[in-house]
Specification:
The protein is globular. Helix 3 crosses helix 4 and helix 5 (221-227) runs antiparallel to helix 11. The strands form 4 sheets. It has a 9-stranded mixed beta sheet, sandwiched between helices. The chain is built from 15 helices and 16 strands. The longest helix is centred in the first third of the chain and has 27 residues, at 3-29. Helix content is 35%, strand content 17%. It has helices spanning 3-29, 120-124, 153-179, 193-204, 221-227, 230-238, 244-258, 294-305, 326-329, 347-357, 370-388, 396-400, 419-431, 435-439, 464-474, and strands at 59-67, 72-79, 88-95, 102-106, 128-132, 185-191, 211-215, 286-287, 290-291, 404-410, 442-447, 460-461, 481-486, 492-498, 503-507, 519-523. By secondary structure, it is of the alpha/beta class. Calcium ion binds next to loops.
């Protein structure tokens, strides 16, 4: 593969990430009011610049400078793990005034471990805050191979779990050095990979955080990221690439078929898990200048079904009906004349196959077969599950430490199948003593009709930071989260309640379906 193609793919990868990341970040910071101070009137006990003198094992504090425009002392440090020679970059922001007594860790997206810009939001709310590159720059998965083309396990581990832990340890130490007091509570707030990083902390370093908001988490990484190439192998094996127009037509038809099942016709399938719409209905219909075929219906059915072994056994979930199928299929062309239909794998999945599974930067995805897919998907589970799977349901130590976690996932997530979060939460319930016992410290809120960036026809959750703080500090568990939909001018045009899974919102039959008070909760999903 030449450099042009490589850099173009990287650009696409980063574009998708930035879009999802921005949506997620705005989700987590929208309209949040600053939490009250835990140490009223506290001020720094040393100059920002003096933090470079702090001595911590395997840590070099490169700079500590006042960033007046963001009211913070901004610290940059490198953490290493001798003799590996690795460099995990950590950014810590410490409010110059009005520190609220809490620390907040932030996460990344895709292969991006995190970003220094993520400090601004939480510091603006009075948190001391941390971010890290988890040991590599940028959003490519190339770091998984060393200069000799072999797996760089230190880099893989730093990205999978160790970088966030190092950031947290350093962030707490710098907070204590700067204010003379350790943070009383620590929170981790993340979206996508950030959501995965938060749950990884709960599983592996359960004392790091008191509260975690994990939005559309990239948990089950070893299953769904490799699984994201399933639409490509299906289309290759069937020699039938399905156009974007046909994929969109099938999504629209599924929404039309299942929209009213929740008794409100609003363009949203509240319960896609029970939407059984079959695209065979579309066979023979015209889509633009083309006709929908049996083979098109089969491909779409297999995309929704998700990866299966050659003898038909379940491997993983597909995106739900109502989620955009284009990011996984990436089909371009019209299929007519000089415009052949071509697929294009989801960029993060493609990089994972190249750098983790095939371990060959030049690996050609168009050589995929069902047999090859099954073989390397299985390798992914076996070789990387324990490292980056983030699907350990044993949260005993986190619970016993007093930890609380809110998981939320859009049901029209086009990049991470929402069923994976339900699968994980069910396993947590089984491991942690049942639904009621689990709900005392971990709750899942599914969000109908929103995608990976929490955008779409549905309403997006609000007040997640406030909810986790109230749960941790006042022991008030979130029984309901308010979701709202705004128009282009920012005006709220619809509100809906979200209830902890398996409860779902149900219209009570009276009043506006755009007002949350007209919905109650019922058992669902
Ligand atoms: Ca509906």
């Amino acid at each position: 593969m030449n450099e042009n193609i490589t850099s173009r793919r990287l650009t696409i990868s980063i574009a998708i990430l930035v879009a999802a990341f921005a949506g997620g970040l705005s989700l987590l910071q929208a309209a949040e009011s600053p939490p009250g101070p835990l140490y009223p009137g506290i001020t720094p006990v040393c100059p920002c610049e003096s933090l470079t003198d702090l001595s911590l094992p395997n840590t070099t504090i490169e700079s500590a400078v006042v960033d007046a425009s963001n009211n913070m002392c901004r610290v940059t440090a490198i953490v290493t793990h001798p003799p590996a020679g690795d460099r995990v970059k950590v950014w810590i922001g410490l409010p110059l005034t009005n520190w609220n007594g809490r620390f907040q860790g932030t996460g990344g997206g895709g292969f991006l471990g995190g970003h220094a810009n993520s400090l601004r939001g939480p510091v603006g709310l009075g948190f001391s805050a941390g971010a890290t590159d988890t040991g590599h720059e940028g959003g490519s998965g190339r770091f998984a191979l060393d200069a000799n083309g072999r797996q760089d396990w230190q880099a893989i581990i730093n990205n999978a779990y160790l970088g966030i832990h190092e950031m947290t340890v350093l962030g707490k130490a710098l907070t204590k050095a700067f204010y003379g007091k350790a943070p009383r509570y620590s929170y981790f707030v993340g979206v996508s990979t950030g959501g995965r990083q938060g749950l990884m902390e709960a599983q592996r370093f359960p004392d790091d955080y008191d509260g975690i908001v994990s939005a559309c988490p990239a948990i089950n990484w070893h299953r769904f990221v490799s699984g994201s190439l399933w639409p490509q192998v299906v289309m290759l094996e069937m020699k039938n690439f399905v156009s974007k127009a046909k994929l969109d037509a099938a999504t629209a038809a599924a929404i039309a078929a299942c929209d009213a099942d929740d008794s409100v016709k609003d363009g949203v399938i509240d319960d896609p898990f029970h939407c059984a719409y079959d695209p065979k209905v579309l066979v023979g219909t015209r889509v633009g200048d083309d006709t929908f075929t049996e083979a098109d219906a089969t491909v779409i059915r297999k995309i929704w079904e998700g990866p299966r072994t050659q003898d038909g056994r379940f491997m993983w979930y597909g995106p739900e009906r109502g989620a955009d199928m284009f990011p996984y299929a990436g089909t371009t062309g019209s299929g007519t004349g000089d415009s052949p239909l071509k697929g294009k794998p989801f960029s993060i999945g493609h990089e994972y196959w190249r750098f983790y599974l095939a371990q060959d930067a030049r690996w050609d995805w168009s050589t995929l077969t069902y047999a090859g897919f099954e073989q390397l998907w299985t390798k992914s589970v076996e070789q990387y599950g324990a490292v980056i799977g983030t699907d350990d349901p044993d949260l005993t130590r986190f619970r016993d430490h007093g930890g609380k976690v809110i998981i939320t996932h859009g049901l029209a997530d086009e990049l991470i199948p929402a069923a994976g979060s339900v699968d994980y939460y069910k396993r947590v319930q089984q491991r942690m003593g049942g639904g009621e016992a689990t709900a005392k410290f971990a709750r899942l809120f599914l969000v109908p009709g929103v995608n990976h960036g929490f955008n779409g026809p549905g309403a997006r959750p609000t007040g997640l930071n406030e909810s986790i703080i109230r749960w941790v500090e006042e022991d008030k568990a979130p029984d309901k989260i308010l979701a709202e939909k705004r128009d282009a001018n920012g005006k709220v045009i619809r509100t809906r309640p979200l209830f902890p899974w398996p409860q779902v919102a149900k219209y009570n039959g009276n009043g506006s379906t755009d007002e949350e008070q007209n919905f109650g909760s019922t058992e669902g999903n």
